[in-house]
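Troubleshooting log. The previous run stalled partway through. Resubmitting the same two chains, unchanged.
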Amino acid sequence: MSATQNNENNSGANIQDPASKNINELIHDARAPLNRISMQAELIKLVLENDMPREKALEAATKIINSCQECSQFLEQISNK
Amino acid sequence: MLNILLVDDDEEFTGVACHIIEFLGHDVLTANSLQDAYQVLEHNEFDHIFLDFMLPDGSGLHLIDHINKQEKTPYITLITGHPLVKGMLTSLCGPKIGYIAKPLQREDLEQALNQKAKPVSGKKNKASMPNKHFDCLIGESPAMQELYTMIERVALTQANVMLMGESGVGKEVVAQAIHHATNKANNSQHKLVATNCGAMTKDLIVSELFGHEKGAFTGAIAKKEGVFQLAGNGTLFLDEVTEMPIDMQPNLLRVLENKKVTPVGGTKEIDVNCRVISASNRSVAEIAEKKCLREDIYFRLAVFPISIPALRERKEDIPLLANTFLNELNDEYERNYQWAAVQLQRLVDYDWPGNVRELRHTIHRAFIMSEPQSTSIELPKDFRSPFSSVSDKKHSLAAGQTIEDVEKELIKVTLADVDGNKSLAAEMLGISTKTLYNRLHAYGEFKE
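Second attempt completed without errors. Output:
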C-alpha cells in the first residue's frame, strides 16, 4: 500500500475548533494527554527504581497533573456532544 | 545499542520517551514532522524508527514510502492512538513494520525494540533455524550441553561467575545467557550492564565503577552513576577484568566484600546487589603466573568459574552456527544464499583460532563478496587471517604435553613452513629424510 493511496493529511488537526470535531476525533485527541501521563508515570518509576535525581520525578508529576487537566477538558467537550 | 529515530509531533511525549529509550541503552534522535524526519534521515542511519501515524504535515505512511526506497531499511514501529487505523495497520504490517497503540508503556517500547525483522521466506528459514539456548547460545555438542547445565545451575544462585575462554568464544553471550536464565528463574526483569575493564583509563576507573558526585573532580559537571549502581539487582558484566591495573583492584575487592559503594566525592555509602560476571581470555594458570589479578579478588569473582570451549573443540556446532549467521545476513539484506555441503565441510575442517567471532566475520566477508543475483555463497580460498597465522606460529609448550606431541607438532610446523618439502624439512629438523618418513608413518599422516 503506497502512501499516496492513504493520504490522510492531518495538517491543522490540532488547531481545529473543538466544536466542529466529531466524537471519534475528540476521543483521539484525549489519547494524547493520556499517552503523556502514561510515559511520565513510567519515567517516575525509573527515577524511583534507579535512585535518579528526584527533581526529574517532581517535574514529571507536574506534567501529569497538567495532562489530567487537559484530559478533563476533552471529556467535557465529549459530554457536550 | 540501537540507533533510534522517534517521529511524533507531541514534544512532551518525545521528550519523555527519549529519556526512557536512552535509559534502555539506546541512542535516540527526534523529529516533529515529516519534513524534520526527511532531513534527519538524510544525514543519519537508524536501526529502528518509531513513527506517529498522523503528523502535522502528512501521514506517517509517506515516510515509510521514503524509507522503503533506501537500500537498508530499518525496523519501523508505527504509533497510533486512533482506533480506526489499528485494523488497517495490522494488514499493513510487513516483515519490518509493527505498531503500538497509545497510551504507551515502557514495556511497549521494550517489546518493539526487541522485534527483529521476520524472515522474508519465513517457513523455510524458520525450519532451518537452530535452537537458541537461553535465547542466545547456539550449539548441541557435548561441550555446549555441559555449559548449558552449568548456566542452569548457577542461574538459581547469586554467585559471582568468572568466564574464561579464548578470544572470540562468546564470553559476553554466555554472560547474557546467565542473565536471561536468572531473570527467568526469578521471574524478574532486571538489567544487564556490561563494561570493559581493559578500556577504562586508570584515572576514571573508580568513577566508571562507582560513579561520582557533581563537582567531585575537574570535568565532573553532573552526578554520574557507576556501573554497580546501574546494574541494580541485575547483572554486571566486567569484561577483560584481568586487564584492570593491579593497583586499582583493591577498590573492586571492597565492593565485592561489602556490597557497598561510595561514589567519588560522595560521603554516603550505597548498597549494591548485583551479580558480577567477569571474563578473561587468560587461563587460570596465566592469571596466577603473571599476577594480573589479585588472588583475593580472583576468589571473590570466580566463585563459579566457567570455561567456555574453543570452537575447534566443538566442530559439530560449526554447521549450525554457519547456517544461523548466513540466515541472519540473508534476512537483513533480503538475499537467499545457501551453503553447499562441501563449503560446510571446509568450515568444519578449519581450526578457527579466532573462534566464533572469526567464523562470523569470515561468513560476513564471503556474503559481501558473493554475486548478489546468485544463491551460492563464495567462500575465500584461504580462511587464515593475519592474526590466525600469528597464533599458528605460537605453538607454545604447555605442561603435560608428551614428547611425542611436541615432536609431532614440530614436524607439522616445519613441513608447513617449507610447503611440504620433506627433504628440506628433514634438513631443518636435523634428521634424515628416512627418519622423517618413519615418523610420519608412525603418526599416520604420511600420504604418497
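Takeaways: Residues 395-443 of chain B form a domain with the Arc Repressor Mutant, subunit A fold (CATH 1.10.10.60). The two ends of chain B are 55 Å apart (CA to CA).
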